[in-house]
Amino acid sequence: MEQDNPGSANSEDVRTNEASPVTCPADTDPLPVTCPADTDPPPVTCPADTDPLPSGPQSSSGCEEQGDVPLLENHIQSEETQSRPEDELEAGCPDVSTVTDCSTQREDEILEQDSAPDDVSGETGQSAPDVVSGETGQPANPDGEGHTHPDGEGHTHLLPERNSDSASAEDGRDDSEEFVAAMLARSKLEEQGLGTKGSSPPLAETGGPPPPGAHRDEDVTGDAWRAHRKHVFVLSEAGKPIYSRYGSEEALSSTMGVMMALVSFVQSGDNNIRSVYSDQHTVVFMTQGPLVLVSVSSSGQSEQQLRVELRYVHNQIVSMLTEASIARIFQTKKNYDLRRLLAGSEKILDGLLDLLDSDPSFLLSAVHCVPLASSLRDSLSQILQKAITPNLVFSILIARQQLITIVQEKTVIEDARLEPSDLHLLFNLIGASSAFQAGEIWTPICLPCFNPDCYFYAYISYLDPPECTVCLLLLSTDKEAFYAVAECKRKIEEAMMAQNALAAIAKAHSYSVSQVGVSDLRHFMYKPFDVPDNHRQLTQFTSPEMESPYSSEEERTRLLDLYRDLHSRIHSSSRPLKLIYHVAERETLLAWVTSKFELYTCFSPLVTKASAINAITKLLRWIKKEEERLFIRYPPKYSTTPNPSRSSRKAAEQHDSTDNGFLSLL
Amino acid sequence: MPERAKMRKPDVKVVILGDMNVGKTSLLHRYTEKKFKDTVSTVGGAFFLKQWGPYNISIWDTAGREQFHGLGSMYCRGASAVILTYDVTNWQSLTELEDRFLSLTDTANADCIYAIVGNKADLTESSAQGPVPEDGQGEQESVGTELRPTGGGSSSGGGGGGGDALHQKQVNQDDALALYARVLRYKGLDGMACPPGESLCFETSAKTGYNVDVLFETIFDMVLPSILKKRREGEPSTVDLEDCRVPKSIKGGCCA
């Protein structure tokens, strides 16, 4: 991403010079006071040159340094699938069929990092942190995404002359990896127009997306189609197109055929194609049962992040069809056209991909809550707790795509909770199906992280038509329960009317960063982690309104890109970091991960390191003070058995007095 | 259930069925809001309560997508009227009614009335001129049927350019009448005792509003006897899913 933009290339230098990503053993140094390089800036180094590991494509700085290498250097990441089944889990991409989801995996990973704080360039002050020492092979992440194969297996550098040779495919056949690399390079050149796109900055490309709905009619041979920042394709194992974000699937069937050819070619060697890197684009492949998902991105996101996004796309498809029925369909008919069943759902997938690009809750795998006085939130929860019917399992109140409260059935799902990623899918469904808002919707929906094979029945209704900002979502396990559940809604409506709750909700809106009272702070995202004794709490994050200078769509995207970049460095599987102080061109950012929280902050560009640290201390204090309002502390439960007991509620209240670990650092 | 007493009780249930993209949601939206706007594909089904004079009429706007097929019989249970909707520019959408949707109505009331509605009539209104070439049809099929979100056809001709804005009418009124006769035969209803096909086959346009009010008013008028009967009988039969089979068998012998 950054090498496309001359300005940010400079800023990259600045960053390396002045204060680079620093790993800070957070357990011993709770505040980033020991930030390096205040007095002794490390020399400008080219990490790719000094990096002892052949991990060129992974290290983001490495990529940037290679910007002057001709574009034909492609890298294939592949790995033995059967020998290392757990690698994928390590990399924060859990299998959908497992019960856990992305967020919990990610947290595990971070905790692992915390437990091994000394692994990466421990002498924080002195060494240039970009230069990773050879011992990066942490026990927690021995292999990660397959980037750091010490022997470079499955890692091909394609020579330019070979690539430009159109006959390379034939030449390469004796060497399978080079053959694949040549195939990839050629197909990518043809499909992505790499040669012609040159150095147009990706941010400019996002400027004028075609109006929604026009995507399907796009000319897939045109430059505009190639210039899209991120393509997502879904195809079946038989190579049948299922979904494309832009352009019609029919028109892309040959392109998808090439993708499937690549996937199956590598599979035939008992291997799995994972990603392809070129100068401009990252191509990530993901096989999920009978479906193959491909992301072609020039957004500069890491493979790991793109993989998480593909998993969301897959989960959204599963949410509509269930994993079991998808498997069954393809078992009986390998070349089934899944679009038959998904027809009409393109808007939902389109909406999901737009949200993935614009909503940081996906990046953080956490739910954004509406800031609300805890007394109001509690009374709303109590209203939900009282309006119950047999087989009702979740009652969720949502305002403007943010969570107000969530109440769940107590006994049926003692050990389960609704995962953030399932909630995101629900939010997306609501957003994508809100066109006719006066009615009450009843629809089957599968929550893949909860159970990928079964349906819930979702009742969706807005409580404040025609404004349609407050939405009630009731999930039942009984297909026939519509009228009973609709009756719950009427009870909730009445109770809320009596308390004038809608007006109170309408008054609650996102807060301004100025409320924190730190002048240089422009924006932040704060995500507290679960603490062990309360591990079933919903993962949440809080973030103020994006205000000037990030009020325009373009600037918002730019800030999110910066956050994504920091996120990918912090969560890099080969070289995880704890603290990054990044001086960008138009702002200064600081990202910090501890065992208690994950924090991303954005400051005005002229902030000094000392004042930034000061500001973060203030910010954390402010969040601590406001946490009752910003987060749902203890999601209440109910029992739909005839005599609902209040015991769970009481238990929650008891917990409330104890410290749940939010900011206990301070 | 005791709580149900508080609920505004629907007197009668009307279900709109039909293939996706024929404009079911748009039809209902045109009738209730007097507006035409772009809709997105319905998920599952949407329930509306329409105040019609002194009566409450519940209307189920269902999703046409095959994905939600399993819910169809639940929506239809105890229905007093079913609106089978097709797209006049798409022959397939009429065929689907018979192939996919007719069987869903097995759970409807025995005296249920069936309306056959051809939507998007605005696309063919002056279709007396020459037919659209073959490839034009193909485009309509692929674009309109598979990829377009539900819409009244406002922009279905987008790809075809302005020249041949009118689409070929693929389904004529006669086809609809023939289908109506087959529906009655499928239901084992006596054609003489039921309302004539002419009064229950409509061509409408959700986009322009053509015939939409007529359609709903006619149907509501026709279900009025069953509303009144239900009110006389006291207990509602359409609301309660568990009980609805009982009144159905009681009324088995009569056709309203």
From TrEMBL, chain A:
Residues 1-175, 189-217, 635-666 are annotated as: Disordered. Residues 391-492 form the FUZ/MON1/HPS1 second Longin domain. Pfam families: Fuz_longin_1, Fuz_longin_2, Fuz_longin_3. Residues 76-86, 144-164 have a biased composition (Basic and acidic residues). Residues 230-352 form the FUZ/MON1/HPS1 first Longin domain. Transmembrane segments: none annotated. It comes from the Eukaryota. PANTHER family: SAND PROTEIN-RELATED, VACUOLAR FUSION PROTEIN MON1 HOMOLOG B. This is Vacuolar fusion protein MON1 homolog. The gene is mon1bb.
From TrEMBL, chain B:
The keyword DNA repair does not apply. Keywords: GTP-binding, Nucleotide-binding. GO terms for molecular function: GTP binding; GTPase activity. It comes from the Eukaryota. Residues 125-167 are annotated as: Disordered. Residues 150-164 have a biased composition (Gly residues). Belongs to the small GTPase superfamily. Rab family. This is Ras-related protein Rab-20.
